[in-house]
Design a protein that fits this description.
Number of domains: 1
Shape: globular
Oligomer: single chain
Strand content: under 5%
Order of helices and strands: HHHHHHHHHHHH
Largest sheet: none
Helix content: 40-55%
Structural class: mainly alpha
Length: 322
């Protein structure tokens, strides 16, 4: 589907329902899942078979990879860490453990959402995707293969200097961006895709790979990877990071927002009341009672003076000892 007047009307209705009906504690989840649905729904139909389903799926995979690469070394994926370990520069004592099980839950929910969207293969014309998706078995196997690939790359990356790994990731994103924006390379990729799916290779064209929002996604990935190299990126949960990368309004029309500014608004979502959800710029007064500590202990720039953040690991994401 394209972003025409009916699509804009649907998005406006969705925003109103989000503000009116979604409880504060679930707004973060609703924002992420709604952005995933919009990512598949707004992707224009593409000629190569399954491209308008697999390219949005690839966007999500790249976002997960970007989070994995840009997270602080203290944020172990499998074990709890104390606040003192997670934010050593603050000098705070370890008063309660911080669990990252929310990241695993987010990963499972996002993978399940992609699988659920593939089930529209069996719903005829009543589907969100531009064309008939691949079979759920194919999607399951692809998710497994991508997961194994990420695990193998993670094992290799652990043996290399972190800065070199981040630099290689930035170069890879730039190379993919160039390949998608340089017509000869895009045509070659489209021809390879058509050959893989048994379609006519001679009809390959750059328009075959019109990847929704990839430019904005690429710049946001590069921004977070570079800020991790510089040590200024907030500590983001997987849910917050994916919400930042996949944020539906921005992925369609921009702007290229900074993670530090976005997270301040993201953390304000549970505190908003009524229609203030639709005016995040008015929400900062509701944050006065929240203690949001930055890993560097410095105020975040971007227009919200006096507000400090630790990223999106809020209290509801943190496990606590009984």
């Amino acid at each position: 589907m394209t972003l025409d007047l009916p699509a804009i009307a649907v998005l406006i209705v969705a925003a109103v329902l989000y503000a009116a009906l979604v409880p504060g504690r679930w707004r973060g989840w609703a924002l992420l899942l709604g952005s995933i649905v919009a990512l598949f729904w707004l992707q224009a139909p593409l000629a190569p078979r399954y491209a308008d389903f697999l390219l949005p799926s690839a966007t999500i995979a790249l976002a997960v990879a970007g989070w994995w690469l840009s997270r602080p070394e203290q944020r172990a994926f499998l074990r709890p860490v104390s606040p003192a370990e997670a934010y050593p520069s603050t000098g705070r004592p370890a008063t309660s453990p911080v669990f990252v099980r929310d990241d695993w839950l987010t990963l499972v929910v996002v993978a399940g959402m992609v699988l659920l969207l593939s089930l529209s293969r069996y719903t005829g014309d009543f589907r969100l995707t531009a064309s008939r998706p691949p079979s759920p078995l194919f999607v399951n196997l692809t998710i497994l293969e991508v997961g194994l690939l990420f695990a193998a790359l993670a094992l290799i990356a652990r043996r290399l200097p972190p800065r070199a790994v981040l630099t290689a990731a930035i170069v890879a994103v730039v190379a993919l961006f160039v390949a998608l924006k340089w017509p000869p390379a895009t045509t070659a990729l489209a021809g390879a895709w058509r050959g893989w799916t048994g379609q006519d290779v001679s009809l390959a064209a750059p328009s075959d790979l019109a990847w929704l929002g990839f430019s904005y996604v690429a710049f946001r990935l590069i921004h977070t990877l570079r800020d991790r190299q510089s040590g200024i990126l907030p500590d983001l949960s997987l849910r917050a990071y994916l919400s930042y990368i996949l944020f539906a309004p921005a992925i369609v029309a921009g702007p290229i927002d900074r993670a530090e500014r976005f997270i301040v608004d993201y953390l304000a979502l549970p505190t908003l009341r009524g229609w203030r959800v639709l005016r995040l710029d008015l929400a900062m007064a509701d944050l006065d009672d929240h203690e949001l500590i930055c890993g560097r202990g410095q105020p975040v720039s971007g227009g919200h003076q006096g507000v400090e953040i630790s990223g999106a690991y809020s209290d509801e994401d943190h496990g606590r000892d009984a």
